[in-house]
Amino acid sequence: MKIRLKSTYLVLIALASACSVGSVSYDNDYTYLYDQKESLIKPEFKIFHHSADSSRLYFQVNSSDVLYSKIDGDTLTKSLMMVKYKLRSFDNKNTLIDSATYPLIDYGLNKADAIIQSQLNFKCASGNQYYIEIRLRDQFKDLNVVHFLIVDKRENGNEQYYLVKSGEKVLPNQIAVNSNKIVIEKSPLLKEDHFLIQYESKSYKKAFPPFAMSRLNEKILEADATDSIRFSDNKLQLTLDANVTRLIPVNSDDETANSLYVRYYYDGFPEITQLEQMLEPIRFISTTNEYNNIIESSEKRKAFEAFWLQLAKNQNSAKALIREYYGRIETANRFFSSFKPGWKTDRGIIFIVYGDPYRVEKTFNNEIWYYGEDNNILSVKFQFNKIQTDWSSNDFELLRDQNYKNNWYRAVDVWRQGRIN
Q: Which label site among 153, 187, 329, 383 has the fewest CB atoms less than 10 Å from its CB?
């Protein structure tokens, strides 16, 4: 799916800023979130601390997830979403600090390759952490989704003090989709203008299967080069030519101050469009000999096609397997990328081999994925715990268990029989 910023008129008007305070649960069913076939809204968010008493929430959704309706007497169509947020104290979830509801109207044609992007400000004092609940409702579909984020406005220079943009598009996870120039906007709350900039082009390893009892011990950012750079009017232009670029404030008064990590993997990310991007992921379902034969072949495309044809037995089935497998890789890249592409992560390997979870339970600090119905002896669940780091807010570690081994090989064997989990 090609992504471009949608050229439309967006109407975003505040409706209300009062709400009753009551108990709230932060454990939610997120089953829809990673479902490739589900047409619910799948938003992406970015928080930016633009002032001492206010912060800004950027959000974007794909137009294909939203229902458009024709306007009477006009050739245009429009979508209508309601965006509601509640900001609560980090220490006491029942303490409501700010809330509002906004209508988001998009005028234009419903095109699957378009991004609807907008923003809103919310009251948020410096020096504290908060929980923010965001509810998006598609009025024409009569469907709702809810997300919970941590707002970290402690004076530690975390990634919420930076805004990374490619043209007019905000990059929610600091992941660039091409190597063209990006602009990094620094919060005026960060007084330091002088930074060290480090570059790394290391290719990180794939996650191990879930029964392997140790996580990959990989050092984050072993810099290939280091330079000095300064912001001008709180803005900095960069052309990306490394997998990871890190900005480190110089002479910061706070020894715990974080760095900013910007990632670039290849043009077109998270899509898989080139043969070289398709080869390494085969390792999840191939034998060592099969994988080596493909990688070492002088005619890699023929070896690649032969591998899938051997599994599927005929061309039509092989094409269906390839579409599903690499569709899952693109989904993993979109949702699970951290300091490495999403398909290489713990969540990525499980999603690619097992597919959409039957049920997802999600909190701020962990996710639990269920495969199979309750009371089914072959059902399995995976728990992923969030790793607190400054290099990514999206790094989750699988709670590994040797008892996964038989279940894992059954799931792999389904692929090897030319079928889809």
A: 383
